Amino acid sequence: MLDTERWTMINIVLFGPPGAGKGTQAQRMMEATGLPQVSTGDMLRAAVMAKTVVGLEAKKFMDAGALVPDEVIIDLIRERMKEDDAKEGVMFDGFPRTVPQAEALAEFVEVSIVLAIEVPDDRIVERICGRFSCGNCGAVYHDKFNPLPESGCECGSFSEKRRADDTEETVAARLQAYHEQTSPLAAFYREAGLFVSIDGDRDID
Question: In what side-by-side order are the strands of the sheet with 131-134?
Fold first, then answer.
């Protein structure tokens, strides 16, 4: 276990439901602030590939098809916060997801602000279920918001590709899980005076 040195720079927590545009806004915020994006999924994969102590521990659970325990995730974040690019702070993307995770994070990281991108569920379903891509070049389209041009895909050989889990039933289940997890977390950060709700049901800019 690493020590519990406390960092007090600018640390942003960004979260929102799937399809809220979190990834797009995270990229823009990184460019505007210079803060590195900290995603637990990315860190897990990197740690496993690098065969770090925490990575090897996480791999045991991942290979067994089990969720990686909070304590392993927290140890991973402790390691990440030691890196040079985190000296001025970081932007947490999709973490913490639960109150216990937030409480554990607070023991060694001082969160500056929590930004929640909020979009109505029906709009999320519309966004996710309408998206598709070109299987040849990867260009992304949407039935309503970014339809395939009449001239076809720029690659000249369009092949429609849709994710099998982009269905109303699957998206509804994901949204339910999100709300169940993040509602207590939102209350936790509101009580701390850190929670800011952002209307995500509008143009990206």
Answer: 140-142, 131-134, 160-161
142 DSSP 8-state letter:
E
Asked if 81 contacts 10 with a C-beta cutoff of 8 angstroms, the reply is: no
Residue 97: active-site member: yes
User: Does 6 participate in catalysis according to the annotation?
Assistant: no
Write down the pTM of the prediction: 0.77
Tokens (6 digits) for 100: 């216990």
Largest separation between any pair of C-alpha atoms in the chain: 59
Question: How far, CA to CA in Å, does 75 sit from each of 18, 59, 80, 153?
Answer: 26, 14, 9, 45
Report the pLDDT value the prediction gives residue 79, as an integer from 0 to 100. Answer: 85
Q: Is 22 a catalytic residue?
A: yes
Q: Which of 45, 97, 123, 190 is catalytic?
A: 97
Q: Which residues contact 176 (CB under 8 A, 6 or more apart)?
A: none
For residue 109, is pLDDT > 90? yes
User: Quick one: average pLDDT of 177-192?
Assistant: 89
Catalytic residue among 59, 123, 174, 190: 174
pLDDT value at position 41?
79
163 is catalytic: yes
